[in-house]
Amino acid sequence: MSRESKPFLRKQTSSWYCSIAGRQISLGKDREAAFEKFYALMADPSRVKSELTTLYDLSQVYLDWCQKKRKPATYNRHRYYLKLFIAKVGRQLRPSRLEARQVADWHEGLGIGSTAQNDAVAIVQRMLNWAVEQKYLSTNPISGMVKPKRKRRDVFYTPSQWAQIRQHAQEPFGMLLDFLYLTGCRPLAAR
Fold it and tell me: Is the dihedral of CA 39, 43, 47, 48 positive or negative?
């Protein structure tokens, strides 16, 4: 017969823990708050799942899904930003402990423009929203986080600048450049 789960004090860290499904969950240092958290966890089994997983584990499962269901370029971009994100917050951080401040510190420290920062935060939010959809988490801890503003880049070439660019292009590439210049469409769409 298995033993009933209940909070216990770990003397080395002066923190309260409980053991659920063979894994220990930190409940904090305050006894009353620890017991409240324990009873909340026992009342809501979906919260137990989010306490047992780490952001690193979620990112790996999400990237496996992304590799199967999304284009390679999307997978590579998501992998790039999630790898940087996990390196910043650590492999052991639980989703329930993630704060918007941590995500903001991460994206502001990347040394990239606000549009790329917007993309980076959107990828982290997408991973967490996916985890909610797949029932890995009950809620997204950063669902209301405001992302950096996207900035539009407008570059206009003067006729003399365009002539200089066009002078170095050989055909048929020159015809493609003319098409892009006259229509304003993106290179991938023009291709």
Answer: positive
